[in-house]
């Protein structure tokens, strides 16, 4: 039997809606990734969620029974901090809207993390954080109006959860966009191809496969990166969504869950 995974030397997994929902692993996901590890197939994890650092993500995954190492985890938070460090001088003040993980990533690359517009930040970076408040959005609004660049880690409208889709960072970005009557200057995470390209480079892969649950981030990002993709139906998108998707968001394959990696390839319905 020809298995889907046999044509690839790296599998890049999205996390929310693919490997876990909330604090619980998706049934079969730890076993599937463990099987890849046992067979010597490289794995990487690419997430737009900016609320955890790579080492924290890897530890969370290991706690769920998923073999994962910090170097295999690629986050939009780290990518956003790296992009700001490339654009700004060392010690530049940056206002962070999001979780402590995003603050830590910015501090680690030599930026000065501030919390108020009165501290004259030259940039605002906005990422998902479950405790983001109106007060933080207000400071960001004032800073951007004063001329600070505005960087979003991602614009995912929703975040999968056991209770159904919940507001994601895109919903918070949209609130600020309405107040400012403009969009962010830069969006770092998927569907931009950077996280996938970084994962392939680090693994030395020539034939990567992206696995995701969202057409507008995971699958579109794979298309932009020139990589094949597998849409799993454990998160946001449905099989009907895949069948009607435009070419820019159409997955190469569809499967019920990560067990599809070990089955013959199945194309989306036409």
Descriptors:
alpha/beta, 270 residues, Rossmann fold, 2 domains, 19% strand, 34% helix, five-stranded parallel sheet, single chain
Question: Quick one: how many beta strands?
Answer: 15
CATH architecture of the largest domain: 3-Layer(aba) Sandwich
Pattern of helices and strands: EEEHEHEHEHEEHEEEHEHEHEHE
Q: How do the strands of the widest beta sheet line up side by side?
A: 5-4-1-13-14-15
CATH class of the largest domain: Alpha Beta
Per CATH, what is the topology of the largest domain? Rossmann fold
Q: What is the SS-derived class?
A: alpha/beta
Termini separation (Å)?
24 Å
CATH superfamily membership of the largest domain, which one? HAD superfamily/HAD-like
Backbone CA Rg: 18 Å
β-sheet strand percentage: 15-25%
Oligomeric state: single chain
Task: Report the sheet with the most strands, covering strand number, pairing sense and barrel closure.
Answer: 6 strands, parallel
Describe the structure.
The chain is α/β, with parallel strands linked by helices. The protein folds into two domains: 4-48 and 190-262, HAD superfamily/HAD-like (Rossmann fold, 3-Layer(aba) Sandwich), CATH 3.40.50; 77-187, 3-Layer(aba) Sandwich (Rossmann fold). The protein is built from nine helices and 15 strands. The strands form four sheets. The protein has a six-stranded parallel beta sheet with strand order 5-4-1-13-14-15, sandwiched between helices. The mean pLDDT is 96.
